[in-house]
């Protein structure tokens, strides 16, 4: 994480970070897969963690020794996250947790989780929430698998029954968790809006067009050989990808000018999610019968991406919530009732 402050990073400005990213790509080097730890738990700890918390959790995270998950959503608190009900009650030098989380990616393999819990049930719903680091191997935590329609196990339900976590795992002030949640969600929306069509991973629109130029997603035909409607779809998908690339550059330019990315992160995520679905829909259609294959190979790539893509406009803040943020924060429209 070159842009993190020393000693955890290189204090790299955005321009230097872009150069480093280009060099990594040129060398064929991929960043490690620990999206929640690197993408939003780490930045939140840098923002609000104590010196001891940073020293304890950031080094193993950067070394790839510890994996992280995010314990935010609940059955009754998804888009309206502040409606969460999982309780954390103070008991001496511990907090005791009871409740449930859902759609927790990688909870079954994570050592740590960033967690929101209600510590003051009498306060207004945004004011009674605290932010914790939760040890996922604690007694009383039960993780149940949720298999998605790709057949893969990434999501989980997590149940807490009298789970005791040390009070020094509280990040920031007690009942001050909502402000930190907004920091985390802002980093999440930036992290989920990378170049790949599947939340920054997987193929891009350029990959799709390039494959078709070279002989077709399914192994035959070229762009000039597909019907005019498909040609128009490919052009539209490529235009979307260019718009997203320019928005990314605008975000970097804002940081270079000393401004923090704000609601534009929601703009980019709202567009990127629909774009990912458009890329995968076109890839599936171009793959033809190959698109029904599972396992490995080009056809399987588009088949899996097509099945995964409906999640894009839901995870990390629904498309509707992103548009509300843009409407209220950028356009100055009244709050959604």
Low-confidence stretches: 189-193, 219-224
Q: Which range does the strand content fall in?
A: 15-25%
Shape: globular
Distance between the termini: 40 Å
User: In DSSP terms, counting alpha (H) and pi (I) runs of 4 or more, how many helices?
Assistant: 9
Main beta-sheet strand count, sense and barrel state: 4 strands, mixed
What share of residues is helical? 40-55%
**SSE topology string:** HHHEEEEEEEEHHHHHH
Which structural class matches the secondary elements? alpha+beta
The count of strands amounts to 8
Q: Average pLDDT across residues?
A: 86
- In the sheet with the most strands, the strands line up as 1-4-5-8
Rg over CA atoms, rounded to whole Å, is 21 Å
Overall description:
The chain is of the alpha+beta class and 337 residues long. Helix content is 41%, strand content 16%. It is built from 9 helices and 8 strands. The strands form 2 sheets. Strands 1-4-5-8 form a 4-stranded mixed sheet. Strands 2-3-7-6 form a 4-stranded antiparallel sheet, with no helix packed on it. Strand 6 and strand 7 (153-166) form a beta hairpin. Helix 6 (228-256) runs antiparallel to helix 7. The longest helix has 29 residues, at 228-256. The relative contact order is 0.10.
């Amino acid at each position: 994480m070159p842009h993190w402050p020393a000693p955890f990073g290189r204090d790299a400005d955005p321009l230097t970070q872009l150069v480093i990213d280009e060099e990594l790509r040129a060398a064929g080097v991929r960043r490690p897969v620990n999206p929640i730890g690197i993408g939003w738990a780490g930045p939140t700890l840098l923002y609000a963690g104590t010196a001891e918390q940073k020293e304890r959790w950031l080094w193993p995270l950067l070394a790839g020794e510890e994996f992280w998950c995010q314990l935010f959503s609940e059955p009754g608190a998804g888009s309206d996250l502040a409606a969460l009900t999982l309780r954390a009650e103070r008991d001496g030098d511990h907090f005791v947790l009871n409740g449930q989380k859902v759609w927790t990616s990688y909870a079954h393999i994570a050592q740590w989780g960033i967690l929101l819990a209600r510590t003051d049930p009498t306060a207004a719903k945004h004011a009674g929430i605290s932010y914790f680091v939760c040890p996922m191997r604690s007694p009383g935590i039960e993780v149940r698998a949720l298999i998605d329609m790709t057949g893969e196990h990434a999501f989980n339900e997590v149940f807490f029954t009298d789970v005791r976590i040390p009070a020094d795992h509280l990040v920031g002030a007690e009942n001050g968790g909502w402000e930190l949640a907004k920091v985390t969600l802002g980093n999440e929306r930036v992290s989920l809006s990378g170049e790949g069509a599947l939340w920054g991973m997987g193929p891009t629109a350029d990959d799709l067009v390039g494959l078709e130029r070279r002989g077709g997603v399914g192994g035959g035909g070229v762009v000039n050989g597909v019907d005019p409607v498909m040609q128009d779809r490919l052009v539209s998908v490529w235009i979307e990808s260019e718009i997203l690339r320019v928005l990314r550059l605008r975000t970097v330019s804002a940081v270079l000018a000393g401004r923090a990315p704000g609601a534009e992160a929601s703009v980019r995520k709202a567009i990127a999610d629909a774009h990912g679905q458009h890329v995968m829909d076109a890839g599936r259609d171009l793959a033809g019968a190959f698109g029904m294959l599972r396992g490995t190979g080009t056809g399987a790539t588009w088949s899996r991406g097509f099945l995964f893509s409906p999640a894009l406009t839901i995870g990390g803040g629904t498309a509707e919530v992103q548009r509300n943020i843009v409407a209220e924060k950028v356009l100055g429209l009244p709050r959604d009732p």
